[in-house]
């Protein structure tokens, strides 16, 4: 399922979508707001230009919106139906969850977005794999 050559491998390992070897983000997971979404300009291994066109990652905002809605609905269901909190308490749970998960959703939306447009290509992997 998470084998090299699958989209899930690239997404969950934060690797280049074309070669699955180079790192996508400049920094590992961090809570520093200025470094959360910093990406390399090109893949360190296959030299894929990550910014496929000017303002390419603006589209990732739509993916992030979808992730935010999914997180909100999931936490509302948990808070309201399972924990039986009031409506106001449920909204506080949602706000806290969104703030805590913001770095994850920002990074995930970018890697998901580029994986929609770039596919794995074996000719860019190491010869000894």
N-to-C terminal Cα separation, in Å? Answer: 18 Å
The largest sheet is: none
- Count of helix runs: 3
> Please, how many domains?
1
The strand count comes to 0
Fold and architecture overview:
- The chain is mainly α.
- The longest helix is centred in the C-terminal third of the chain and has 29 residues, at 87-115.
- Helix content is 46%, strand content 0%.
- The chain is elongated and about 55 Å long.
- The mean pLDDT is 91.
- The chain has one domain (7-124).
- The relative contact order is 0.20.
Write the layout of secondary structure elements.
Elements: H1 7-13, H2 60-82, H3 87-115
Which features does this protein show?
mainly alpha; 129 residues
Describe this structure in a few short sentences.
The chain has 129 residues and is mainly α. It has helices at 7-13, 60-82, 87-115.
């Amino acid at each position: 399922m998470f084998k090299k050559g699958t989209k899930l491998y690239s997404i969950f390992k934060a690797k280049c979508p074309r070669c699955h070897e180079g790192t996508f983000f400049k920094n590992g997971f961090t809570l520093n707001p200025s470094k959360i979404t910093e990406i390399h300009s090109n893949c360190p291994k296959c030299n894929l230009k990550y910014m496929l066109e000017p303002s390419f990652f603006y589209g990732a905002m739509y993916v992030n919106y979808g992730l935010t809605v999914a997180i909100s609905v999931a936490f509302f269901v948990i808070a309201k139906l399972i924990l039986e909190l009031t409506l106001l308490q449920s909204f506080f749970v949602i706000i806290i969850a969104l703030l805590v998960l913001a770095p994850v959703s920002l990074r995930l939306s970018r890697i998901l977005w580029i994986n929609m447009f770039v596919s794995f290509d074996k000719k860019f992997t190491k010869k000894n794999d």
